[in-house]
């Protein structure tokens, strides 16, 4: 085995234990789930490059074609109104692939990673180096469910609190502007070493959690720099083409509306990834997994908000390195293999709304005792 492949194997082994908890400390039912996965008659951790490429190219083509119709059609025309939701859906679907990029091993499918960033991530100002580190921190037992967890929705919306929910909606409206300005102002981040360091730690992760502080490694710094310059050029072209008269001024609010809609879809998915029942303290592996949700039923909202089988979210947190295209097969194998009293089988939720409504409105009020 060469050094590159050995590195990927080790990385997958670390991922398979969902962060920092040693396997020996996991409860018996989780060991049982892992044994069941290993008993499958196929390698559920084998990546299908063809599946990645097809999903990416189809999503990219559909999103760019629909977005072109939306942007170029007469303002307020039926073509524009029809193209808007289609472009939003496919842009969200393409953007969701950044999640799959970040879970690939360091030396796994380098061509795909480069293509996704050049053709997708930079164009939509969501390059993978601005996602990978904080997403892996979300999987870590050190951060999961704590105030520093960058993807735990309870850190920025309190269910049942109208002010908090309104603030959450405002953050969705502000997020595209903040990301645009982050890349437009790239040259100013090099004014002093202190400004650059603050930017890398506090403004180089696509998260709503302002308490999250990124701790960039040398590799992170190189990766961020590699995408910052083309992202700066992409951001600069948006107002520059308007100033030069090559695009109408309406292009900017149209792009903003498309960005807000895409961000909103992603944030709606966040509402049901986890139950968010923790109190902010570090939790053990069992609590981490049982706080996560699987959605195996095909209700329309689940299909809309969870592309690429990431609706098997609890399973994904158990096996972060399992490729997305194998999650459904793995779940079905576990349902058929595990004993009927396995806690894993209780992780399945009936629909996206059954979890999301608690994130928005809070848990139902307790019935008073007689």
Q: Provide a count of the helices.
A: 15
**Integer tally of domains:** 1
- Name the beta content range: under 5%
Proportion of residues in helical segments: 55-70%
What is the overall shape? globular
Order of helices and strands: HHHHHHHHHHHHHHH
Report how far the terminal alpha carbons are from each other.
67 Å
Structural class: mainly alpha
Q: Mean pLDDT, as a whole number?
A: 91
| Rg (CA only) | 21 Å
Structural features, described:
There is one protein chain. The chain has 370 residues and is mostly helical. The protein has one domain (3-361). 57% of the residues lie in helices and 0% in strands. The chain has 15 helices and no strands. It has helices at residues 3-15, 28-38, 49-72, 78-102, 110-121, 132-139, 162-184, 193-202, 218-243, 251-270, 285-290, 300-305, 313-318, 327-337, 352-361.
Based on the model shown, name its key terms.
single chain, 370 residues, mainly alpha, 15 helices, 57% helix, disordered N terminus
Short structural summary:
By secondary structure, the protein is mostly helical. The protein contains 15 helices and no strands.
Give the SSE map.
Blueprint (H helix, E strand, L loop, with lengths): L2 H13 L12 H11 L10 H24 L5 H25 L7 H12 L10 H8 L22 H23 L8 H10 L15 H26 L7 H20 L14 H6 L9 H6 L7 H6 L8 H11 L14 H10 L9
């Amino acid at each position: 085995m060469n050094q590159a492949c050995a590195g990927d194997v080790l990385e997958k082994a670390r991922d398979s234990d969902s962060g920092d908890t040693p396997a020996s400390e996991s409860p018996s039912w989780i060991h049982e789930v892992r044994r069941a996965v290993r008993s499958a008659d196929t390698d559920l951790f084998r990546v299908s490059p063809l599946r990645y490429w097809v999903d990416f190219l189809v999503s990219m083509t559909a999103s760019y074609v629909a977005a072109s119709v939306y942007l170029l059609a007469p303002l307020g025309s039926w073509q524009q109104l029809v193209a808007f939701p289609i472009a939003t859906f496919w842009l969200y679907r393409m953007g969701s692939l950044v999640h799959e990029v970040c879970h690939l091993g360091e030396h796994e499918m380098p061509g795909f990673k480069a293509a996704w960033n050049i053709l997708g991530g930079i164009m939509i100002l969501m390059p993978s180096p601005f996602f990978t580190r904080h997403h892996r921190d979300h999987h870590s037992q050190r951060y999961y469910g704590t105030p520093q967890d960058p993807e735990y929705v309870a850190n920025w919306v309190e269910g049942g609190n109208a002010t908090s929910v309104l603030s959450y909606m405002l953050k969705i409206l502000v997020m595209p502007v903040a990301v645009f300005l982050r890349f437009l102002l790239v040259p100013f981040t090099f004014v002093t070493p202190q400004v650059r360091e603050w930017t890398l730690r506090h403004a180089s992760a696509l998260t709503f959690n302002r308490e999250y502080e990124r701790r960039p490694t040398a590799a992170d710094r190189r990766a961020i720099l590699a995408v910052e310059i083309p992202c700066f050029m992409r951001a600069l072209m948006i107002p520059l083409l308007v100033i030069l008269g090559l695009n109408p001024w309406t292009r900017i609010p149209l792009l903003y509306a498309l960005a807000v809609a895409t961000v909103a879809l992603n944030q709606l998915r966040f509402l049901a990834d986890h139950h968010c029942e923790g109190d902010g303290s570090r939790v053990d592996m069992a609590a981490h997994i049982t706080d996560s949700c699987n959605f195996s039923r095909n209700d329309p909202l689940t299909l809309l908000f969870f592309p690429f089988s990431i609706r098997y979210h609890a399973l994904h947190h158990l096996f972060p390195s399992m490729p997305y295209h194998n999650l459904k097969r793995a779940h079905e194998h576990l349902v058929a293999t595990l004993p009927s009293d396995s806690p894993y089988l209780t992780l399945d939720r009936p629909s996206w709304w059954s979890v999301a409504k608690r994130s928005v409105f809070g848990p139902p009020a307790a019935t008073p005792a007689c």
